[in-house]
Amino acid sequence: MARVSKKNRQRRNVPAKADSRAQLTDAVDDLFDQLLAELWPALRSDDVLKAEVATARCLAVGRLLGISQDRSDSIFVKMATQSKKPEDAALLRIITLLCSPAVKRSASRALADVTASGVYPAEWVAQVGRAAPVQAWLRDDTFGDEEMIVVKFSYGDREHAFSVHVDRSSIPLVDFITLITDTDDLVGNLEQPSGDFKAAGQISLAEARRRLELALANTKPDRELPHDTIALLPVFRSRLRRLPASGEQPAQVYTAADRAAAVDEFMKSPEAADAVAADEESTRFWAELLAAFSSRLPDEPPAQLGPLTLEFMLTSFVPRTYVVSESQRRHARPAVSAWARWSAAYRGLDEDAIQYLLSEVPAALEGFEAAYDDPAFAAERGYTADLAVRETDVVRIGEHAVRRQFALPKPEDRLPDGESDALDVADPVSRRVYIEAEFTDCEPGKGMAREEFLVAVHRVIEELWTGEPPATWEEAQRLLDSGKNRHDVIHSLVERSHRRG
Ligand SMILES: [Zn+2]
Q: How far is the CA of 488 from the centre of ligand 1 (A)?
């Protein structure tokens, strides 16, 4: 079974880095010239899809030069108001579909100006963005790490499809998008397994929207993606709005009870016997971690495990979240291997796939060892280690981490005093010392003596740290949303706390 590892796949998709900034700029210049040469004929043709995609590819060039999307979109808006030709009107109309609300307003105004001067877009432009969804398919990979969702659309009698590759190993993220302009063989191809992917099954358009909405929302523009995917993302976002609203939970949702049941079943299984005999407590610890990680996605079965998920979990999630004892560390390999073997057999994977998954365990654990000893990871797990042992829902653990990192900033955001980098946030005395230093020169609020002020600051910080009462963090979030920075939010919370007495 030939498999492409995550690292290799990323290497394949990401364009090679140019040796110097100048070379990069030259390469982008060439690409831009080529894309512009394709843009104008596409805008003059009567092919809606071609015009849309050619525009999107040009708009995405700014990203390669580190220009923000809004700025680069605005440059195109300006460009399209110069020559007063019908293709300028077409370009502006397509920009209104693909860009942010702010650029959309200026593009709409520019379009109104262009038409006011008597230049109208061709008739087909009215169809832009109005592709009709036809059908959707889902392809899972052998291990459940990734999925590929294909959605077919039509512009009149011309069909096209988008294939969206989603990585589920951390949170669902878009890895790449491919445009399929020739759909003649699409169904035939989808019925065949391809690489790690199984044969596709048809899903409802609403189901496709539910899965894709989440992945698209998680895929932020700073993610390193192939240029064509960056270009196709806004096109596909506009297509997604054409699909029927999903509005509901996935068909199958797994709970904490399901995860606990999976751990119990594993502990009694023949696959776990040797590991349990050697160290029962540590085997259970790892089984609970592995099952808990599935809680990040409501539809992820507790026994789900593939090479990519394993790698992410061991090299990122666990070292950032949990304190692992010496004996648990020593027992990691037998325990994780036993779980991998059990989960693969439980899901009915063939021996070839089981062996492949097992062969990935040592490298993932090596990565874990290095990550666990990294001071940055150690600092991060200080925020959640005490909760993580009893909280089995990793989304909740993440919420606690965000709140606590507000109460006491991460090392890179702390006072530059050279001492607070090594602060043990889990220790209440250390928290006190840090906060004292941060607020010592501050002006106490109205009617407050300095001593009183510092007592109130400590109270607020501890309320944020523990999450009790919840109203303190809710108020903090409200103030943050209104644009205040962390330090000023804490001042406001202190005044509020003081007023209440
Ligand atoms: Zn202050």
A: 7
